[in-house]
Amino acid sequence: MTELKNKVEKPDKEKLDALGVWNWPTLEKEACRIDWVFDATETSYFLEGRVVVETEDGQRVEVKKGDLAVFPKGLKCTWLIKEPIRKHFNILDD
Fold it and tell me: Strands 76-91, 60-64: parallel, antiparallel or unpaired by DSSP?
């Protein structure tokens, strides 16, 4: 079981710059429900919005504006997008 709460943080500007977040692609999505499986590890920095991510084993974590989140390869979850999101994302080749 992956503990998602340990995968969400509020990074400072130095960390975001070091990761190169500002050069990552951007994704926008309206409020909705999405069932998702991560085929690769994804790191996302949320510019806007709010989403509750619920895993198959019942973990729930809220991710919102200003959060940096890591979603591990193989994670099966449901995204409940409460407020439209806009995020930078980076998919690792793992």
Answer: unpaired
Question: How far is Cα 59 from Cα 61, in angstroms, rounded to an integer?
Answer: 7
- Domains of the chain as residue ranges with CATH: 4-91 (2.60.120.10)
The residues, any chain, with a CB within 8 Å of residue 94's CB and separated by 6 or more, are 40, 41, 73
What tens digit of pLDDT does each residue of 29-39 get? 999 999 999 99
Nearest by Cα to 42 from 58, 57, 25 = 25
DSSP string for residues in 36-60: EE-SS-EEEEEEEEEEEEEETTS-E
pTM of the full predicted structure?
A: 0.92
Task: Copy the structure tokens of residue 56.
Answer: 């198959």
Instruction: Give the pLDDT score at 3.
Output: 67
Q: What is the DSSP letter of 88?
A: E
Q: Cite the DSSP H helix spans in 1-89.
A: 13-19
